[in-house]
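Thread: Newbie trying to understand structure tokens

Hi all, I'm a second-year student working on a class project, and my supervisor (Dr. K.) asked me to get a predicted structure for one chain before our next meeting. I've only ever worked with sequences, so writing a 3D structure as a token string is new to me. If someone could post the tokens and maybe explain what I'm looking at, I'd be very grateful. Here's the chain:
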Amino acid sequence: MPLDNKPTNDSPDSSAPGKPSYFSNQFAMAMELPFVLVGAVLLGGALGFFLDHWLHTKPWLMLVFGALGFFGGVRDIIRRLPGSRRP
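---
Reply by user tm_fold:
Sure, no problem. This is what the structure looks like when written as tokens:
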């Protein structure tokens, strides 16, 4: 017998305030995925840029690492999508 007289959420039809809804999960994923792709491309391009300056191979390594970042970002987006198979 509770002494604080707070209502309990024992009924299964009430939505739990701590559990996010399906819409909010999808919205959060839609906001996150463009940053994943752009971040991967920028990280790969920046790594290639600095390697180009160090090895004097302008602009080849920046293009190669930028493309690798793009493919890595697309792979990460596909992996994060619901219903995708995970290797």
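A couple of things are worth pointing out once you decode it. Helices lie at 22-55, 60-80. The chain has a mean pLDDT of 85. Feel free to ask follow-ups in this thread.
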